[in-house]
Amino acid sequence: MTEVFIAFFLFMLMGMPVAFAIGISGMMFFMQQPTLPSTIPAQLVLTQTQSFMLLAIPLFVFAGNLLNETGITHRLMRLSSMLAGHLRAGLAQVNMVLAATLGGITSSAIADATMLGRVLGPGMLEKGYSRGFCAGVIAFSSLITTMIPPGIGLVLYGSIGEVSIGRLFAAGLVPGLLMTVLYMVAIEITARKQGYEPERTERITLKELVTTSLDCIWAFLFPVLLIVGLRFGLFTPSEAGAFAVAYAVTIGVFVYREFTWEKFVRTLEDTVVDIGMVMLLISLSAIFSYGLTWEQLPQAFAELIVGISGDPWLVMLIIVAMLLVVGMFMDSTVLILLLTAILIPIARAVGIDLVHFGIVMVLTLTIGLLTPPVGVVMFIVCSIFNCSIVEMYRDSWWLLLATLIVVLGCIFFPQIVLFVPDMIFGKQ
Amino acid sequence: ACGKTETAKTKSPKQKYVLKFNHVLSDSEPFHKGFLNWGKRVKERTNGGLEIQVFHSAQLGVEEDIIEQIRQGANIGQNTDSARLGMYVPAIAVMNAPYFVDSIDEVAKLRELATVKAWQKELEDKHGIKILSFTWVQGLRHMVTNKPIKTPDDLKGLRIRTPGVPIWQESIRSIGASPVALPFGEVYIAMEQKAIDGADLVYRNVTGAKLFEVAKYMSETNHILLINFEVISKKFFDSLPPEYQQILVEECDKAGLEASREMEKEVEPLRKQLAEKGMTIVQDVDAAAFRKAGEGAYNVLKLTEVRDQLYKEMGKK
Amino acid sequence: MRRFYQYVCAAEMHIAKWALAVLTVLVIAAAVMRSIGMPIVWAIDAATFLFAWCVFLGGDIAMRNDRLVCIDVLTCRLPKKYQHYLKIINYSIIVVFLASLIAHGVKLAYTTRLRTFQGIPDVSYTWVTIAVPLGCLLMLITAILKIRNLIQNGYENMPDGECGCPKELM
Ligand code: NA
Ligand code: NA
């Protein structure tokens, strides 16, 4: 199996698509095992697509792509500006509110970073905020979407680990909102130090606020309906994805009237490509995981970690530290795919709640999107604002601190995470 | 069939064999313990020459996939049932039909019947599947739902999870419900999210998978006495020294009987345990009505003659 | 020949996108019909069937459009010449891998013919299984065409922005 791991890293460094790097190195395991029939890889690749649970993934991707086309974004933008424009570094605060509300409909940190950077980036530079601060604001705010439901990372974790996606969604709410609030505090502190001024001087009237909020009601309703539907068993996670698709189409066609047949077909085509890219990775990684299972490596690994300590807190900290390290080099989708099945038995063995663990794991891995040397969101914002990684961290270290507080808070106060799911779904 | 001439009785055998044995049950079930016992005794008797590694919770893959792998000669084994074997030798599925046998003793007789022997040979020669043992009896299956089931009518319109093979589906259909194919591991979440209305399971499955959290009633329909089959690759079996083959089969039968008896003994305490967890055990089930309805499955799948032939050979009814 | 391939690509996109649309409708229909007490038992099975086809055809489309995720920290720092050769090497390895998956996928499609699809009588699992070799065949063609283009164009003409990989969804 050592050769297989070496081959995997070598292929990845050679710039081979990760899906193939994983599949081909996994295939090498089968070549070392003369007793294993060579048809197994083909079978494993197929079986991944035959799971009722994994059906949730393409449907949520489809729904996310549709929601981006329906005209919700610029309405949320107007509302966010009303809510936060009077604060110091007003545009940065607007960005945080927008990220949180947008998080209720989108599911991808990378997509959000790109979108927020384009929408608010030029304005922030114009206001004279430093490039590093702008980059940091956009980058950290994009983490919020992975926690506020829906989030594709939680769907992946839940589907692979057979953990209730409804509970995971509900569990992400508080950490997501907590992040938003702490980020706003961090911006306020930075703004005072740097002397950034508010966007507007006067507050908005109640009437303005009400009309704009009503216009955005469909966006707010979406995550709520999703959790309620899952809670009352109106639909399964896969069906929730399909329901999200229907919701997006309905709002786009009947409420905002901006959604056309051409847009639908285009979204369908974009989604096919996205599904191809994600599911090919999931499918081919099954070849690799089979080798791990065959050699009983996850058990060995679990015994090793549990052997260090049976204390849930310590085990969680070890895992988080490890995730932060691997997250520096690889990005979250691949890591969730590879590690969920390995880490869940460990969490179960030491008695960590799997929903709690999922939130911590996905949150930690998402931070990897911002850490050098390989961090996609970091690359995106640094290229948008034309700044260096050092500049970004120098000017936004209060935001980094806020992130750490949220992660540590989630680890040591499970109630932050479990309070909402326990309230909605009942205690487990 | 193997090229080794030296005796296998030496202290440390020259060639070591490993069998990877997969099953879909959780590691808390008696069968898992049974498989571990089987492995332990085989290892002892072969001086470590044949090792069995047991993978619980379908870690190596879903049952249907594993059987395909077995057919192609992998050193893999699987705990399965006659329903799935029926995809290869259709008549064998009769053992999974409603109300086919009633006790472990009846199951023990099956192996010696001429017809059953012919089936085993066909599985080996035509499909590469070797049955090691079928003394593994999981017990009588009942309905786990959120409403009491007393007559076949109570099952009307309910989506009941079954494994994805025709005999299961027909059996469930014949006693009134709509079958839904779903892996066992997905039952809890599907129940929780109401994707299905219930499942047909033995007592132990309900505690093992914590289904009392998502279902209120356990109705004792007794509709299937689930016989499990331990199958491995014929090619791998033939590659073993003859004495290993014998040990493997003997110990499998022995461990199976033990595990089956233990499961039988467990039913009473499990009943109590589930009642304490808040489940209602429904025992006043209209057995005659269910038995009559069950006939439908034999008719649809044209298994009536096969059943009558087996009954004749074993002197039943 | 080129005409024919363009036709195949168009058909591939059509099948994949309508498979996605139909599977979405099926999943919604299953949920709705269940809640009104008239479950469509085969809907989810049919949806996973379409899913398999959507995945393997979509995989090829993503590959053709260079949308597969990869890690480019190291490769992007190399001189263009080495980038060029690395790409050819990568695609060549992928070709061998896909060829082996096709061969074994075909074999598997044959051996699973007795297995029924999710317990629906008379529907063989083979119909799902052939999605693998067929999808891999399309990807194999894509990989070979990529190699041909790389060799024909040479590294001198490689545009500057060519080295970056696409990013993931999360
Ligand atoms: Na989100
Ligand atoms: Na990183």
UniProtKB/TrEMBL annotation, chain A:
Cited PANTHER family: 2,3-DIKETO-L-GULONATE TRAP TRANSPORTER LARGE PERMEASE PROTEIN YIAN, SIALIC ACID TRAP TRANSPORTER PERMEASE PROTEIN SIAT-RELATED
Entry's localization field: Cell inner membrane
Family matches, as InterPro entries: DctM (IPR010656), TRAP_DctM (IPR004681)
Main location: membrane
Recorded topology in the membrane: Multi-pass membrane protein
Residue ranges annotated for the TRAP C4-dicarboxylate transport system permease DctM subunit domain, each copy included: 5-416
Transmembrane regions: 6-30, 51-67, 132-157, 169-191, 212-234, 240-259, 271-292, 304-326, 333-351, 357-385, 397-420
Provenance organism: Acetonema longum DSM 6540
The keyword Cell membrane is assigned to this record: yes
Protein name as it appears in the record: Trap dicarboxylate transporter, dctm subunit
One cellular component term from this protein's GO annotations in UniProt: plasma membrane
Molecular function as annotated in GO: transmembrane transporter activity
Keywords in alphabetical order: Cell inner membrane, Cell membrane, Membrane, Transmembrane, Transmembrane helix
TrEMBL record, chain C:
Keyword Transmembrane helix belongs to the record: yes
Main localisation: membrane
InterPro entries attached to this UniProt entry: DctQ, TRAP_DctQ
Membrane topology recorded in Swiss-Prot or TrEMBL: Multi-pass membrane protein
GO cellular component, one term: plasma membrane
Gene Ontology process terms (BP): C4-dicarboxylate transport
Membrane-crossing segments per the record: 15-33, 39-58, 88-106, 126-145
Tripartite ATP-independent periplasmic transporters DctQ component domain mapped to chain residues: 23-152
Name this protein carries in UniProt: Tripartite ATP-independent periplasmic transporter dctq component
Subcellular location: Cell inner membrane
UniProt record similarity statement: Belongs to the TRAP transporter small permease family.
Organism: Acetonema longum DSM 6540
